[in-house]
Amino acid sequence: ANARFGPTQLVPILLEGPRAQLNVQGPALVRALTRRPHTRVLSAWDTGTASAGLRPRPNAAMIVVSVDRSEKTVVATDQPQIERLVAATTKAPVHSFITGQPSIDRALRSASLDNLRRTELIAIGILFLLTILGLRSIVAAALVTAVGAISMLAGFGEVAVLGHVMALDPIGVALGTMTGLA
């Protein structure tokens, strides 16, 4: 792909299903992807030696989408658009699998934020239990925990606003919200 497209963001798509359905839905998907701006496509249905390796089995075919934009832009806008286009163009019995660095980045970011939310809720529970043990009063423990939870939510809000101004890594989000809880 680098030899054919140059340095770009690659989004490989694997289609699996009956050969006849692949040969109908695959070219339709290639045409739809080719109409996207900043996008070039190499597929199993192209002519030439490069495309010959994209059909490893009769019931599987690859499409390599090259998006000539920054990784940040591809992750934020192009990847979701490509995913929607693939979902709208392919139907059962053909199944699609989308991968590539933008997919991995989106999945890691989403998983990091989900884990952060879960661990923050666990931390609030632990804070409540520790303050009950330390203060020996449920009311005092509830007040301290409520202040901690409000601070944590304020940290989430501050980081969300800051995220509109500058790019933030999920670790930065975690540090901001953990600071609020601390």
Structure notes:
The chain has 182 residues and is of the alpha+beta class. It contains seven helices and four strands. The N and C termini lie far apart (48 Å).
Number of strands: 4
Number of helices: 7
Helical amount among residues, as a percent range? 55-70%
Taking the sheet with the most strands, its summary is: 4 strands, antiparallel
Write out key terms for the chains shown.
7 helices; 182 residues; alpha+beta; 4-stranded antiparallel beta sheet; 4 strands
Short recap of the structure:
This protein is an alpha+beta fold. It is 65% helix and 14% strand.
Question: What order do the helices and strands come in, and which of them pair?
Answer:
Elements: H1 2-5, E1 9-16, H2 19-34, E2 39-43, H3 49-52, E3 60-67, H4 71-89, E4 95-98, H5 101-135, H6 138-165, H7 170-181
Antiparallel strand pairs: 1-3, 1-4, 2-3
Helix pairs in contact: 2-4, 4-5, 5-6, 5-7, 6-7
